[in-house]
Amino acid sequence: MKAKRFEDLFIWQRARELNKMIYRITNYHNFSDESLKDQIRRAAVSVMSNIAEGFERGGKDEMIHFLYIAKASCGEVRAQLYIVLDQGYVNQKEFLEIKKMAQIISASIYKFIESLKSSTFKGLKFKQEKRNDIDEFSSTLFKKEKLNSYTFWLQRRNENATCSQFLNGEGYFLKKKSF
Q1: What pLDDT, in 10s, does the model give residues 54-78?
Q2: What domains does the chain contain, in order, with CATH numbers?
Q3: Which of 91, 97, 106, 121 maximizes the CB count within 10 A of its CB?
Q4: Residue 72 burial (CB count, 10 A)
Q5: How many CA atoms lie within 13 A of 22 on its CB side?
Q6: Rounded to 5°, angle at Cα 120 from 119 and 122
Q7: pLDDT band at 122 (very low <50, low <70, confident <90, very high)
Q8: pTM of the model
Q9: Are residues 41 and 26 in contact, defined by beta-carbon separation less than 8 angstroms?
Q10: Closest CA to 34 of 43, 23, 26
Q11: What angle is formed at CA 15 by the lines to CA 59 and CA 25, rounded to 5 degrees?
């Protein structure tokens, strides 16, 4: 399945789960260390946010760059989890559950990076553009109607005409240009 939005990415969905876990333990446990609470939350948010930002940039190289940042933030979450455990803010079971999720995300990000590196896909912003829609439509229409010897211009019939209506000849009409 092709991801059309960052929300479609497995790694983003798992990063969202990680955030829920981190917020759950920092909200419902007796966290007296506000700095640690803030830092682990920011690191978890960074994982999710960098996956989204990389995807939205539209280029493969930028995506890879932001995925590396997300992976590093995932490592930061894991490191801080040890402090959380050592300070008694979570029990061993909670620690292992959250750590496992962070490890899965980190490994998945790595696999995604490697997959992108070997891909020929450059990114959505480099998608090969079609010829100019107006030129395509007008040249097709002129050939059909043998209107080559006249100068015409396209005028919208209504403001809500879509590009596909335009290409199908709907929502627009030709007028002879007066000189």
Answers
A1: 999 888 899 999 999 999 999 999 9
A2: 6-126 (1.20.1440.60), 133-176 (no CATH)
A3: 106
A4: 15
A5: 30
A6: 105
A7: confident
A8: 0.68
A9: yes
A10: 26
A11: 155
